[in-house]
Design a protein that fits this description.
This protein is an alpha/beta fold. The chain has helices at residues 39-45, 53-61, 96-105, 116-124; strands spanning 2-10, 14-16, 48-52, 71-74, 89-92, 110-114, 130-136, 144-145, 156-163, 169-175. It has a single domain (2-18, 38-111, 120-169), classed as Dihydrofolate Reductase, subunit A (3-Layer(aba) Sandwich). It starts with a strand and ends with a strand.
Amino acid sequence: MKASVYIATSLDGYIARRNGDIDWLHNPEYTLEGEDFGYSAFMDSVDVIVMGRNTFDKVLSFGGWHYSKPVYVLTSRELDLPDSLKSKVFRISGSPLKVMDELNSMGFSHIYVDGGITIQAFKKARLIDRFIITRIPKMLYEGIPLFDPSKPDWDLNIHSVKEFDNGFVQLTCHPI
């Protein structure tokens, strides 16, 4: 089973403001006609999404549903889902290894791991096979970091670097 992360960060490494807001990502200057920054190809490569509860709540706040793949929300709390999502969204709990084992037993082979706490838990368990990190040319100076700065070093092999005309830089990395 493979686990990948696809995420955007500010230049200084934050995925959201302190309050969880990602308004800084929605700058019209960041839009490039016909460019999805590899998101569609990435989504075509995964067969299931695991996201944390905070990320799930944030996604719900956008209105509508934007995923065609099954979504498993990693949470210890109950999920109160609207009827329209009951066949698309499922609750899962346990350690990242337990989650991967459970999803593997269901026939899934490639997980998209999303959400700061969830990504950090999978990273700590050394279960992430690939990071696709798009650096946005904006400094936030504080917020929710992608990686916990108090944790030990972790070496990555940079597989590719792609620059976009709007200043985005996308790194694809694999743990060594």
